[in-house]
UniProtKB/TrEMBL annotation:
Source organism of the structure: Variibacter gotjawalensis
Biological classification of the source: Bacteria, Pseudomonadati, Pseudomonadota, Alphaproteobacteria, Hyphomicrobiales
Domain EAL: 24-273
Top-level taxon: Bacteria
Designated name of the protein: Cyclic di-GMP phosphodiesterase Gmr
């Protein structure tokens, strides 16, 4: 096309595309070796009950420290790992590491993000079971976070797998609720034990009347379906106050705690004195 249209901006655009494609290809190859090179580690972010500030659990968030490029965001590398299939092995590493760390804590839930690619594998429920047995973590302490986009590929299989996982005693949260293909049908059809409201709604709580109306509606929905709602991305005290006034169940965000490396008993003890509590 650059030859037919001799426009420098087109050439520039194609060159950029080339570079982006090359970069993806090299990250794709590097992802395959990242586990054995020990380039992955987990950060944990605290989740609390809104009314008391009590810790309800931690979300495990994957971090990649590339030997040459340094830290690369999961927003960048997870899609590449999904595309190439390496997310299956990486996700298994995440699950095993998170469960084994959490097993050494004195209590609390561990939430682990699961890709649609993992969920689509016929043996996923067995994998989860095997990792629980191997790490000794009680199933009641594990929660898997799944986005709606992860469910659209093969709904029948996804439903079957999620039911088996629930039968193990493991909880399932719908992640980033409201951000993507949200449909009430998804909430009705799948056995969710928590709704994680996307942080775009939390962000709008103070100024945007529509965002607040949506938060209120989702909280009402959660209440009538008897599914607790967690608000993601809480960054200010006034957001947390509004969430408390609207009877939101749980909260997570930079205000309450940034994702951090520690994990383990010491971390849990520190976090039991939450940075922010609206209890009194
Ligand atoms: P997510 O599961 O919705 O995780 C929440 C993201 O929001 C995290 O970004 C977290 O650091 C960030 N966050 C937390 N509190 C705040 C806040 O108050 N304000 C703002 N602006 N951001 C906040 P992170 O760690 O970069 O992860 C991004 C996404 O990558 C995750 O979104 C999840 O979809 C995916 N991801 C991370 N780890 C894994 C993993 O182990 N497996 C899979 N499949 N996906 C993962
Ligand atoms: Mg998540
Ligand atoms: Mg989320
Ligand atoms: Mg997200």
């Amino acid at each position: 096309r650059a030859k037919i249209v001799p426009d420098s901006s087109v050439c520039f655009y194609e060159k950029e595309m080339d570079e982006a494609a090359r970069e993806r290809k090299s990250l794709r190859a590097d992802l395959l070796r990242a586990i054995e090179l020990g380039e992955f580690h987990l950060h944990y972010q605290v989740q609390t009950l809104v009314t008391t500030g009590e810790v309800s659990g931690y979300e495990a968030l994957l971090r990649w420290n590339h030997r040459e490029r340094g830290a690369i965001s999961p927003e960048e590398f997870i899609p590449i790992a999904e595309e190439s299939g390496s997310i299956v092995e990486i996700g298994e590493w995440v699950l095993r590491t998170a469960c084994s760390n959490a097993a050494s804590w004195s209590g609390g839930k561990i939430a682990v993000n699961v890709s649609g690619v993992q969920l689509a594998r016929a043996d996923f429920a067995e994998k989860v079971h095997a990792i629980l047995v191997e790490t000794g973590l009680s199933p009641s302490r594990l929660e898997l976070e799944i986005t709606e986009t992860a469910l659209i590929a093969d709904k029948v299989r996804a439903l079957h797998t999620l039911r088996r996982i629930r039968n193990l005693g493991v909880a399932i949260a719908i992640d980033d609720f409201g951000a993507g293909y949200s449909s009430l049908e998804t909430l009705r059809a799948f056995p969710f034990s928590k709704i994680k409201l996307d942080r775009s709604f939390t962000r709008g709580l103070e100024r945007d009347a529509q965002a607040k109306a949506i938060v209120r509606a989702v909280l009402a929905l959660g209440k009538s379906l008897d599914i607790p709602v967690l608000a993601e991305g809480v960054e200010t005290v006034s957001q947390l106050e509004i969430l408390r006034d609207e009877s939101c169940d749980e909260a997570q965000g930079y205000l309450i705690g940034r994702p951090g490396p520690s994990g383990g008993a010491a971390n849990l003890n520190v976090a039991l004195e939450p940075a922010v509590s609206l209890a009194s």
